[in-house]
Amino acid sequence: MQYEVEPLFAEPIFRADLSHAITPAQVIYIKNLAMAQNQTNLISEDRYIFEREELASIKTAVEEALEVYRSEVMGIEQRLYVTQSWSLINQPRVGMHGHSHSNSIVSGSLYYCDLPQPSSPMVFDRHREYRMLEINPSAGKRNIFNTNMNAIVPKTGELLLFASGLQHYVEANTATQPRYSIAFNAFIRGKIGDYRDVSELTLQ
Ligand SMILES: [Fe+2]
Questions:
Q1: Is residue 95 part of a domain?
Q2: Is 6 part of any domain?
Q3: What backbone torsions phi and psi does residue 69 show, to the nearest 5 degrees?
Q4: How far away, in angstroms, is 100 Cα from ligand 1 center?
Q5: Which site in 1, 123, 149, 202 is 20 to 30 Å from 166, CA atoms measured?
Q6: Other C-beta atoms within 10 Å of 148: how many?
Q7: Residue 53 sits in a domain of what CATH number?
Q8: Which pLDDT value is given to residue 128?
Q9: How far is it, in rounded angstroms, from Cα 82 to Cα 58?
Q10: H-state helical runs in the chain
Q11: What is the count of structural domains for the chain?
Q12: Is residue 23 part of a domain?
């Protein structure tokens, strides 16, 4: 029997190197931000760090990447802009619980300085809802169509962009050094819906 299996839909993860936009002084500046305890890791007290002038070049590079994501990945006319932005530290043995980002369309992570080795992956979950039936592929039979998870090992200087509704977690940091990153949410500005269908909505 001859057969073909074609993908109907796919979930994107956008990866770009932004190391050109990050200076050593900015790395020190971000590492020294006042931090608060998150569930197990640390999160900056300031949850709008991209509003700081010292981080302007990083914000601009993120905005440029969001612009590419908007036009080339989403293919939409509206504009994407960063809402909240914060820094994170995962100390050795600390990961990040599974979560998704509410009130956001696109979220991102930026690995702004040297990652510890081995670098713990970010793991994305295919399922966004309660699963009454869990029917999982056998070991060795996992593929893009049936896998429940996909892990991304970030690189130093790398930006990841993904749909905010995607569940994700970070595996525990198995290195002896802390794992630093920045995260942010983005939303759209502009008109969505349709005037004649009375579904129109203008997002300022
Ligand atoms: Fe997240």
A1: yes
A2: no
A3: -60, -45
A4: 6
A5: 202
A6: 14
A7: 2.60.120.620
A8: 86
A9: 12
A10: 24-31, 56-68
A11: 1
A12: yes
- Phi, then psi, of 51 in degrees rounded to 5: -80, -10
Distance 77 CA to ligand 1 centre (A): 26
C-alpha 189 to ligand 1 mean position (Å)? 22
Query: What's the pTM value of the predicted model, to 2 decimals?
Result: 0.95
Cβ atoms of 184 and 50 within 8 Å: the answer is yes
Residue 1 DSSP one-character state: -
The string of pLDDT tens digits covering residues 137-183 is: 999 999 999 999 999 999 999 999 999 999 999 999 999 999 999 99
Q: Is the peptide bond before 118 cis (omega within 30 degrees of 0)?
A: yes
Tokens of residue 151, six digits? 């892990």
Between the CA of 184 and the centroid of ligand 1 the distance, in Å, is: 8
Q: Which of 13, 33, 147, 168 is nearest to 95 (CA)?
A: 168
* Distance (Å) from CA 180 to ligand 1 centroid: 13
| Ligand 1 centre distance from Cα of residue 92 (Å) | 19
Q: Which residue has the tokens 């995260």?
A: 183
Which tokens is 154 given? 């970030």
